[in-house]
Amino acid sequence: MYVENQITMVRSHVQNVQDYLPGFIRFFVNLWYQNPKVSKDLYRRRNEYLTRYADYTLANLNSGNPNMKNSLMYYYYTEAKDTVTPSQVGSVCLTMVSAGLDNAPLNFQYMVMQLTQSPHIVTKAYHEILKCYNHDVTKAWNECHLELKCAYISAIVKETLRLFTVLPMALPRQTTKEIVYQNAVIPKETTIFLNCWAGNHDEKKFIKPMEFIPERFMDLNHECDFDDLNHHENFEYDGGKLDQSVKHLAFGIGSRMCLGNTLAFKELYVLTCKFLLMFEPLDIETPGLDGQLNPLKLNKFPESIAIEPKEAVIKLKVKNLQLLAALDGA
């Protein structure tokens, strides 16, 4: 996790001008660059564990492990080995490792910060989880990873991904052909960026975009009690379904969106379920911020490619001592 976190601090769309320079000019810029040794060491360490990841898959292709046969990497090494290059496989490995080790924890950290300020959401989420498992806390804990049963937890995760937008600007893409957009011609091989932050906080698409409102991702007719919306001042709704075509852009969009989006979402879903089953978030202390949870004001490293929340002190209470004792015994 340390390596991936540090790489986000040296990989920036606006700070690393050498990424956009011709190779011969980049050589001289790198001579002047202050931290070449740090960057090279991070690159070396990342390559080492990505290589181990790929080697492990290759060594266990015929192990008979059903999880291996259901994995994306198994497919690449067996069914698609003639069409997928080693560098593309490496890119897939990087996506799974990088997002899972760095981006997911940052999103979860911000979610917990929001939950300390939203006791009504915490209470509702806890009861919604239990409803999915016949009010059996132990069963909910042991089985919440099997499927995304709880719609309200999914809504909390989606709202966290939307509001926090850990990567405000998506990773660069290059056009493979000339594109005409609203009378503007974008030439082939143009580097473009998706402004995820702007899309996720568009007031035309998201009512009160800077507020944490999971209900915006739910079907108000079937999954949401209208009384729950009273906790959100002036939250407007049409008395029926929200526009389900409106989605967050935290993973990008289209065929080039993050390959690890399903894995990252499930990680956050399971982590949120287990956190709420075990703990009651009570309070938060954000030194110098007075409880301000605006992601941009919380950002610890504004020059980084990712938003990382500043340190905060969060007070928790164990909600279920019986569950805790059962886990300790196990």
Describe this entry's structure for a reader.
This protein has 330 residues and is mainly alpha-helical. The chain has one domain (85-329): Cytochrome P450 (Cytochrome p450, Orthogonal Bundle), CATH 1.10.630.10. 47% of the residues lie in helices and 7% in strands. It has 13 helices and 6 strands. The strands form 3 sheets. The chain has a two-stranded antiparallel sheet with strand order 1-4. The chain has a two-stranded antiparallel sheet with strand order 2-3. Strands 5-6 form a two-stranded antiparallel sheet. Strand 2 and strand 3 (184-186) form a beta hairpin. Helix 1 crosses helix 3 (36-59) and helix 3 (36-59) crosses helix 6. The chain is globular. The protein starts with a helix and ends with a helix.
Concise structural overview:
The protein contains 13 helices and 6 strands. A hairpin with a 2-residue loop joins strand 2 (179-181) and strand 3 (184-186).
Q: Give the name of the CATH superfamily.
A: Cytochrome P450
Unreliable residue stretches: 232-242
Please give the radius of gyration in angstroms: 22 Å
Helical segment tally?
Answer: 13
Element order: H for helix, E for strand: HHHHHHHHHEEEEHHEHEH
Tell me about the largest β-sheet. 2 strands, antiparallel
Give the CA-based shape.
Answer: globular
> Termini separation (Å)?
27 Å
| Fraction of residues in β-strands | 5-15%
Kindly state the percentage of residues in helix: 40-55%
The CATH architecture? Orthogonal Bundle
CATH hierarchy class name: Mainly Alpha
Question: How are the strands of the biggest sheet laid out side by side?
Answer: 1-4
Structural class, from secondary structure content?
A: mainly alpha
Count the strands?
Answer: 6
